[in-house]
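Troubleshooting entry. Yesterday's outputs looked truncated, so today I'm pasting the complete records for two proteins to confirm everything comes through intact. If either block looks cut off, that's the bug. Protein one:
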Amino acid sequence: MDDPEILLENRRFKVVRKVRVDPDGIERAGQIICHPGAVAILPLLDDGRICLIRNHRYAVDEQLVEIPAGTLEPGEDPLPAAHRELAEETGYRARFMERLATFYTSPGILDERMTLFLATGLTPGPMKLEPGEHLVAFLAGWDEAIQMMRDGRIRDAKTLAGLLYYRAFGRDHLMNPTSPKLV
């Protein structure tokens, strides 16, 4: 098979045309968005509240409630990226960052792999937004976050995945004193 044909390339991603041979032997072409990957962070304060952000997303022309997240630089390790994005988007610095899960965001068209971290031991500080970012950080209790998911105020996939993953499995990490904490 030939190398993928680049159809579009910019700073954050590229769109390529790839040819593959299906199990039935038929050659098929498809377009794929190639992305360097991303991190998402679930910032959990000592009192159990979660730091969320309101972020206007131009692709859907709506303000969404999200957990902080950001794109990796090509070849960048997710852990320092998670620390950077948490500080930029919320102002919080984490004493501990624990990797919870890695998942694909939309594998039908996109190869983006997102790594979800739990951030604890938080201390407040100034936000360092990138040019063009207009985010508002706010705190929510678990009951409020669950209600926002239930009533549709939280519709962002990484946020739904992060909150539900932690609610289902993440607390086991906190109850296990041998659980590895990344710094």
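Protein two, checking that the full record survives here as well:
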Amino acid sequence: MDLGRIVRHLFTTIWSARRAFPRAALDAIEQAISLSERTHRGQIRFAVEHSLDLPDLVRGVTARDRAVEMFARLRVWDTEHNNGVLIYLLLADRDVEILADRGVHARVGPEGWEAICRQMEQAFRSGDFGGGVTRGIQAVSEHLERHYPSDGAQANELPNRPVVL
């Protein structure tokens, strides 16, 4: 059990998430997702969670574990072409996880997603949360454009509004 992590989570509140992602930043992220989805057939969701509850911390739940749970809860897996992508941020850990449905993941692979995560985390360390996410969305979109180019039909299967948990 990591006491430093527990303390960090206890002091990272919903207000921390709102400071990092004020309404204007959430609006910009939503717009970035909307614009990117015009260039490909993929579906992108962004979710930020301020911290984990104490029982989860004691059990050793990681950002990856939580991202898998959110992938299911937000139904990112439920797209017609198996091309959903979740960008998940656990704010207290400053840990980004990108989970992609099997269709996308098979084409991009874990190394492609990991590089994007590290770039976003670097932006977060300097306090650039909105910009880090927006650039992450652009990088994810480049992969989706390559593997799922737009066919002109715009079927928006998932909401574009960021989720603040």
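Both blocks look complete. Sanity check on protein two: Residues 102-125 form the longest helix (24 residues).
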